[in-house]
Amino acid sequence: MADESWMVPTPVQELVAAVEEPPSRYVLPEQDRPGSPSVTKDIPEPFPVVDLKRLPDDVAEAAKLRSALQSWGLVLVTNHGIESSLMHDVMDASREFFQQPLQERQKCSNLIDGEWFQVEGYGNDPVLTEDQILSWNDRLRLKVEPEDERNYALWPKHPECFRDVLHEYTSKTKRIRDDMFRAMARILELDEDHFISQISDKAPAFARFTYYPSCPRPELVNGVQAHSDAGILTILLVHNEVGGLQVQRDGIWYNVPPKPDTLLINLGDVMEIMNNGVFKSPVHRVLTNAEKERLSLAVFYGVGEEKARELGASLLDV
Ligand SMILES: O=C(O)CCC(=O)C(=O)O
Ligand SMILES: [Fe+2]
């Protein structure tokens, strides 16, 4: 039988302990490496930070949001309704999960029979071809919406609070999603419920916890390869403000500065289609770091397959 072990790489967390250099499967072709030859800059100040609670009544705040979504497709939000203690709790729970021995983490594995990828669970993203360049991260991906489709068998049992904390966190991010929908509809002079009414109660959402171990040669690899998110919008929380996220515009990569207690919201491809391209779905990537590990939690909101098909969007992760 053909050797198909390439389909199931060793978790990066285990790899780092064993190698001094990233293995060739992680090394980017020269032209795609961070910093070369493309230019990297810091996002020009002031980077858009929007107060979510003030959006409905404050024209200046809404103008900031419009400009951020038109020029970057992403925005940092404050006053979003998630207490800083809950932000810490969800990240601590995630860190505790990744700190467990491999055998424990694999109880949530995204492989069926140790071989076939499923969309949920712990591991790496699907490896589709033998020459695919791998990303320097391990992740845990869980369906959080609709709630009755959660597969709790894949949710970590340790730490014990994991389930409750993630539930509380995602019930709040859903409210943020809806606040953003209403704000975008108002900006576009549509009925306030325009976007909300198009999204069914059965629309899916996934939480993705990503762990980026520190990398001995960050200039050779990507933490996450360049991509745009497929769905409607993504709400991102980064632990301890470790940088690394970059967004591309006009061929230039810009560093996105993380800020304490803020969430980063970026739009996805389906949203770009739904608003006729006024607001962008940004191409972004994550770089690694020689000194620090990085931990993030992204909650991806989609429209569901039926609506995506109607809109002619890609059916992946919607
Ligand atoms: O970890 C991050 O900062 C972003 C990850 C990301 O872009 C993704 O998972 O789609
Ligand atoms: Fe992304």
Automatic annotation (TrEMBL):
Alphabetized GO MF terms: metal ion binding; oxidoreductase activity
Fe2OG dioxygenase domain ranges (all copies): 201-303
Keyword Cell membrane among record annotations: no
Gene3D superfamilies membership: B-lactam Antibiotic, Isopenicillin N Synthase, Chain (2.60.120.330)
Renumbered residue ranges of the record's region Disordered: 23-43
Keyword annotations: Iron, Metal-binding, Oxidoreductase
Domain of life: Eukaryota
Family classification: Belongs to the iron/ascorbate-dependent oxidoreductase family.
Name listed for the protein in its UniProt record: Fe2OG dioxygenase domain-containing protein
